[in-house]
Design a protein that fits this description.
Length: 158
């Protein structure tokens, strides 16, 4: 599979919304009490959300494209220090998702590497991300890229 990683633009928002909704459905299936339930029109909502950060200088959305078709995207951003999280400034990988047809082709790896390069170029001293606990496949990728486990989120329903 031959694909190009490039910065997303407004013409990509419909596809980004579809992929973001897919990410939302995957997480909801992992734990419906923790994650937001998908709803009719969620693709438009996710596209609007990604569109709201698309042009912000401290954010980047990169897409992997092959023959004019987007196979996946990654959304990363620079984050300031956080006393709440007990950490200094960092880059944060918010989303990474690859279409079912392009899985296991190296797309996610290339998207992640491109996002890490962007964060490095922006001066981020480290990168963080979160992963749904049952998502072992994604965690294997993140570990291969050098991420280490640092926090465990725990949830209780009230």
């Amino acid at each position: 599979m031959s694909f190009t990683v490039r910065r997303a633009d407004r013409r990509d928002l419909d596809t980004l919304g579809r992929l973001g909704a897919m990410l939302m459905r995957i997480h909801y299936a992992f734990d419906p009490k923790r994650f937001i339930a998908p709803y009719d029109g969620v693709e438009h909502g996710y596209a609007a959300f990604l569109g709201s950060v698309l042009d912000k200088p401290d954010n980047v959305i990169l897409v992997a494209e092959e023959n004019g078709t987007i196979a996946g995207y990654v959304y990363a951003a620079l984050e300031p220090p956080s006393w709440k999280e007990l950490r200094g400034p960092a880059g944060f990988i918010h989303d990474v998702i690859v279409d079912d047809m392009s899985r296991r082709s190296g797309v996610a790896t290339q998207l992640m590497l491109a996002a890490l390069d962007w964060l490095r170029e922006q001066g981020a001293p480290r990168a963080l991300l979160g992963s749904a606990a049952p998502n072992a496949e994604a965690q294997r990728l993140f570990h291969r890229l050098g991420f280490r486990d640092t926090m465990i989120e725990m949830t209780i329903e009230l």
